[in-house]
Amino acid sequence: MPEFAYNIRQYYPQQRQELLQVIAQIETYPNAAERVLTKANLIMLHCDQVDPHTAMIVKQELLALDGDALVSPHVYLGQSTQPTNVLAWANERSWRTLCGKFQAIPLPALQALAQQIGALLLHNQARGSLKLGATQWDWGRKTLVMGIVNVTPDSFSNDGLFEAGTSQIQQQALEFAAAGADILDIGGESTRPGASSVSIEQEIARVVPAIQAIRQVCQLPISIDSYKAEVVAAALEAGANVVNDIWGLRQADGSWNMALAQLVAQAQVPIILMHNRVSTVEQFAHGTNYAASEYGDIIGEVCAELRQSIELALQAGIANDLIVLDPGIGFGKSPEQNLQILRQLRTIASLGYPLLVGTSRKSMIGITLNRPVEQRLWGTAATVAYAIQAGADIVRVHDVAAMVDVCRMTDALIRHEG
């Protein structure tokens, strides 16, 4: 071999466990890992609508810390007093130094930036956990699988158990549990575009017997897929443990769902806040209906609207560690918009909350692959594997046994502890 064959290769700091192993092989000092990771991990942050003065301070301070920031040319040329979006980057150590400096400056804009950046950095280190009775979920340790149990007559995936007897519902729950599901999601109203609305009484009559039947044979946590406070109250009384709200504490008219927020806060149960928008049903070229809304910056708007839902939840008294987010794949978004959200899912995960992703059998898969709903297993598998590596903590699926295998294999690749 040549005398100086250094075998140079690149390591990617995002693979934290891999990098920790390399550090341990070379240097054994207790603080080696933290020292290396904070200098090696380049973090890029996007900030919306920053006033020009603050934007220029951020840029100047980052330049002094070997980072940088992009701002509107009109701002750094002094030609505008309008806010600018800022795209900034630095390593973790520099960001922490910047936060410390901004916190000491008596300017509210800089202190707010420091608080929000600090919260994001904290999320990148400690994920926390959620305890549901005897069950504890340690976020980041493994991907949780949510099995879908529809008790509707008009599910888009044709798997509704509306006419099934108690024994068939119990059988599905037991099969999901045996296959490795971590939670069951019970829904009594179809959310597909164009589905008929269901009265509160009808929905309760569907979900409560199903929950009671499952509770007789299975102790897996149960989430109730409903945004109606009366339905949720009845479901929790019947044995449900989690609330899955497809409107993120909003109502169809855009107003806030205070009744549900207060109910969840009083019950002290976890809530999944999904991003959704009122939208119009559009007709795709080959005849598939989907619902789409107009977006400018879809990722920025999804993040902003999820933050609004979080703020309401916290104001209502829901504990911060009981909140889970869902970007709402297939809800108020076109197929391409859904794919865009998946591609940038890590940005949504950076909000600092556990993330649920539901792509199972969705129309974006059918349109991309030209497959009917019953032939979307492999497309679903691809999206599930991608979502996990991009930050998903829970995946909501119809085909539990197959997707448990996908999750365990993907976990072995990206979540291993070395």
Written account of the structure:
45% of the residues lie in helices and 17% in strands. The longest helix has 19 residues. About 2% of the residues have low confidence.
Low-confidence stretches: 280-288
Give the neighbour order of strands across the main sheet. 13-10-9-8-7-6-15-14
Radius of gyration, CA atoms, in whole angstroms: 23 Å
Report strand %.
15-25%
Strand segment count: 15
| Cα end-to-end separation | 31 Å
Structural class: alpha/beta
Q: What's the number of helices?
A: 16
Mean pLDDT: 87
Main sheet?
8 strands, parallel
The helicity comes to: 40-55%
Shape: globular
Write the layout of secondary structure elements.
Elements lengths: L15 H11 L5 H9 L1 E9 L1 H13 L3 E3 L2 H4 L7 E8 H12 L4 H18 L3 E4 L2 E4 L5 E7 L15 H14 L3 E5 L12 H18 L4 E4 L3 H10 L3 E4 L12 H10 L3 E4 L5 E4 L5 E4 L5 H19 L6 E4 L8 H9 L1 H5 L6 E2 L5 H7 L7 H13 L4 E4 L2 H15 L4
Parallel strand pairs: 6-7, 6-15, 7-8, 8-9, 9-10, 10-13, 14-15
Antiparallel strand pairs: 1-3, 2-3, 4-5, 11-12
Helix pairs in contact: 1-2, 5-6, 7-8, 8-9, 9-10, 12-14, 15-16
EC number: 2.5.1.15
Pathway: Cofactor biosynthesis; tetrahydrofolate biosynthesis; 7,8-dihydrofolate from 2-amino-4-hydroxy-6-hydroxymethyl-7,8-dihydropteridine diphosphate and 4-aminobenzoate: step 1/2
Organism: Herpetosiphon gulosus
